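=== Structure Prediction Worksheet ===
Name of assembly: unnamed complex
Input type: mixed (protein and possibly other molecules)
Chain count: two
Listed entries:
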Amino acid sequence: MLSVNQKILVAVAWPYANGPRHIGHVAGFGVPSDIFARYHRLVGNDVLMVSGTDDHGTPIMMQADKEGVSYRELADRYNEVIARDLQGLGLSYNLFTRTETLNHTEVTQDLFTALLQNGGIIKDTMLGTFAANGKALPDRYVEGTCPICGFPDARGDQCDNCGNQLDPVDLINPRSKIDGLPPTFRPTEHFFLDLPKFREQLRGWIEAQMHWRPNVRNFSLNLVDDLRPRAVTRDLDWGVPIPLPGYDEKRIYVWFDAVIGYLSAAIEWAHNHGTPDRWQEWWLNPAAQHYYFMGKDNITFHSVIWPAMLLGYREQDGVTAGPHTLNLPYNVVSTEFLTMEGKQFSTSRGVVIYVRDVLERYGADPLRYCLTAGGPETQDADFTWAEFVRRNNDELVATWGNLANRVLTIAHRNFGAVPPQGTLQPSDQTLLDELQRAFATIGDLIATAHFKSALAEAMATAARVNHYVSEQEPWKLVKSDKERAATVLWTALQAVDSLKIIFCPFLPFSSQALHEQLGYTSVIAGPLEIHEQIESNGAHHLVLTCEPASWTGRWQPSELPAGQLLPAPNPLFRKLEPGVVQEEVARLLAKE
RNA sequence: GCCGAGGUAGCUCAGUUGGUGAGAGCGUGGGAUUCAUAACCCCAAGGUCGAGGGUUCGACCCCCUCCCUCGGCACCA
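=== Predicted Assembly ===
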């Protein structure tokens, strides 16, 4: 276990503000990062967890054009929708902000300028692809006939039929996927991140990261072998402006400014708290550890491109510590993909389950449980409603919910309060010892990003306590030997109280509910709040935040005091009818 | 096409550097029990570890070939 007060940055991938989040998104970047952050806070480490919506980029422009609203309007709308999705799921960001802020613009421009000054960014001319409306068109939004195999619906970047990589200008009869009109091609000047310049530095750095998941490390090393300069800017009117005269028609493109969000959000967080320099405790302190969470489609940006940008920024001061020596990632934790009833998620094809719909109908914890227990941690995973109902009923309700409920019910009915400890027998002590060990075991698993095994271990511990209760039969003891019954129930309640903390990173809402059923009045962890933030230029935006410094939960065995009054218990989780499966599957089919 | 991941009990998956009879959860069958959301607890059955070769005293784990599934292949994030 890590020592307390370790500074940990939990950097979570920024979702596009182009629609509500579906459960595949949060299975990848959301729930794992939150489990990690909540655990480290319970341990006593200083966690800064940041993210926000990515308000720029082609998908947002396309969606706005489709709806006939401005880009900003669309981003505003979905920034709020997404913030509420994440709040409802209990994702405990210290700051969830957005890229359309003055602060983010300034930080992005600062990095751009610095990289340009020391040669990390170079200027070059490329052949641009333009839609009929004059805007830059990404290669993948161009379709046409493949010049190699004749496939009529090849994309500008690659032919799905023969697999060859293409250039949009090579397509026969090219057309825009957006409006169907033929694009035009003309040379255009842009800024490029000079990735080859950082090749050897990156290679050496990545090779040293033996604690990364092997797939991330190997994948990244492969990328480093074939780095080319990458265009930082686009011929667009949506995005962070280029901080140089004469470039009003161009913007910094989304991939460049999105990763900078990890830094700008930390700066915004510090500013919002009236301690404008505190971001440095995470970003300029070499002892701070930075963990990045994302889906596997995003590895390259976090293990190669963003580190290259950070290295380039550092070069202003050489290798000595200074205001530009920003920390590199300590770990890049990527998850695989979640499919839905065997199919890729696809909003356009209706293969989608929105977070808010699940929250509304079933609550946050069952979803968090399912996405962790059956999540795409090391390989692609399939979400099915049958599996959701099964895990909810046969695992969450039957093992953990039932344990809490049966222990609380017997204790409440017979004592009305936490009974006195009495004399512990070996069986009681053994159970308490096991709980104590569980904190260490499960804590280590979470700290090393093994969330699936950690949760399985927690459930196994709950099963162990169920075993103890069945074996001791306190419902009989209350009639035959009340003193022994008191000791057994005291022990079981300590175990349940400890499990409450162990489950808290995974299932924060039910842990809080249980906390109250155990007679406490404090808050373990929460609340998460959305409020408006006003910037120096008068602009305002919504932020999702929380104040973990005031949270009372601690990653340690129960100290539940005897005599504490126990209110009448309520089940922590609700059993779902089997009909839910059919109902939900029917909903999906209706969308397709 | 290139690169990569994966094919292990009915289902979902674990299986460090090759070594006593291959595991878990759920489901199934049986038992016990009734505090608990017919939940909990105990026991059991179930697999020639995708196919075929090879290396080895010995391979699910190493090498080769083949079959099947999936992802990436950069200006999409």
